[in-house]
Automatic annotation (TrEMBL):
NCBIfam families in the cross-refs: PRK05450.1-5
Pfam families per the UniProt record, alphabetical: CTP_transf_3
Keywords per UniProt: Lipopolysaccharide biosynthesis, Nucleotidyltransferase, Transferase
Protein name: 3-deoxy-manno-octulosonate cytidylyltransferase
Highest taxon listed in the record's lineage: Bacteria
Transmembrane segments: none
Keyword Membrane (UniProt): no
GO molecular function, one term: nucleotidyltransferase activity
Lineage: Bacteria, Bacillati, Bacillota, Clostridia, Lachnospirales
Amino acid sequence: MKIVAAIPARYASTRFPGKPLADICGKPMLWWVYQQVSKISVFDEVVCAIDDPRIQEMCEKYGVKYILTKENHPEHISRIHEVATKIDADYYMCINGDEPLISKECILPVVPKEIVSAPYFGGAMRILTDPAETIDFAKIKLVVSEQTGKCLYMSRTPVPYPRGTLFFKYKKYVGVECFNRAALDFFVNTPMGDLEKVEDIDHLRFLEHGIDLHFNYVQSESISVDTPKDLEKVRKMIEKNI
């Protein structure tokens, strides 16, 4: 089974332009992600899927393997699909380029155990412990069946609503995803549905068409850098580690 790790990194982030090049303790953020992912032996290849000459210059300076993809991909899944058209593999593990603290504990639970032909998506989730993250619309919340591990819904608002009981824990999407080629082909050839438009969550395209999303718990202190405030938090954590 061949697994390729692809790290999408877009320069023109709406909330944080130039995010992949943001400095963390003397190195660009994308460098930190690439180093972390490259330590994991399960991957046959690790490549960054970039879209800008400024990121390309950084990759060449630091010896980061990359594929220069189109600038006009509407979201990261389409960018991973372009990688799949250039590198043949059974699975494509997408690790977000804004997860500089990502570790094998966040990734290995998502690795599939067998090859399947039907569209397949696997993802990572963790329990939310920070109230600020729970109400932050940038952090995607999950409703997942404890019996099957299948995702029932994804939202930017805290779900489910605690009307009947307070004895539950919110779950958060972690930026690790696994696709086979069939899932990637389906996504790029299927128009956006109403729920995806409303929530602005790409993965709802699968759910709206009855394709299962499988999520596994991970032990994670990883923080996705969505804003400059997140960046400051990550800097402090990395400074402490080094």
